């Protein structure tokens, strides 16, 4: 198999021995069909077993291998080496603390994700014997796009607002809140509202749209946030008119 030598510059940081992150270069004989993750796996298998990074499925489903490649957040299993020149720079996702090499600390996102109650809150609980919570294809279509999120966090690495203020709930968690709010089987919108419509929620988003541009699954988190802003504003105005405050 014909190969091409590519220099892979990887950000290294092992907190027990490195005072600060630094770049380490590896020469990798890349095959035509390789994605960047294949090059990292070659380094791990053949050149340097100490390199740490996350991956699992190699088919952009698990969301584990988000990294900054040549300055842009993306899945390393989705980007072909042949689309780059002879040098590729690989860094951990921006805006998160580094745990080790390309592995980031995800705790902040996990807390934010659970704070928006990302699960179905039905009007009435059904027993398993009663069957599924049914809905029509048209009802499914209203939110299906937002179910495609794989929690890769590329959108957080691209979001300038999250970079400025890590209290911001951020694009993926807010898009997931919208996914459930828009689900005809769900009545949890008011239970999510305190977090979603807080200062750290949708109103913190400046709608630059960088999140949607980098999303590998076309989730459009920026669009989801704008739709949530619209419904929250309508709720507020309705509450003012009826004298009942927010719903
Ligand atoms: S649209 Fe909002 S969430 Fe998306 S990158 Fe911009 S500020 Fe961040
Ligand atoms: S919205 Fe897109 S970029 Fe953000 S975590 Fe989900 S799949 Fe990744």
Question: What are the main properties of this structure?
Answer:
247 residues; alpha+beta; Ubiquitin-like (UB roll); five-stranded mixed beta sheet; 9 helices; 7 strands; binds iron/sulfur cluster
Written overview of the protein:
The protein is α+β, with helices and mostly antiparallel strands and 247 residues long. It folds into 2 domains: 3-104, Beta-grasp domain (Ubiquitin-like (UB roll)); 107-242, Alpha-helical ferredoxin (Fumarate Reductase Iron-sulfur Protein, Chain B, domain 2, Orthogonal Bundle). It is 33% helix and 15% strand. The protein contains 9 helices and 7 strands. It has helices spanning 36-47, 107-115, 137-141, 154-158, 160-164, 171-181, 189-196, 210-214, 221-242, and strands at residues 3-12, 22-31, 66-69, 72-75, 87-91, 98-100, 103-104. It has a 5-stranded mixed β-sheet with strand order 2-1-5-3-4. A two-stranded antiparallel ribbon has the order 6-7. A hairpin with a 2-residue loop joins strand 3 (66-69) and strand 4 (72-75). The longest helix is centred in the last third of the chain and has 22 residues, at 221-242. The termini are far apart. The model has no long low-confidence stretch (mean pLDDT 95). The structure holds iron/sulfur cluster (2 copies).
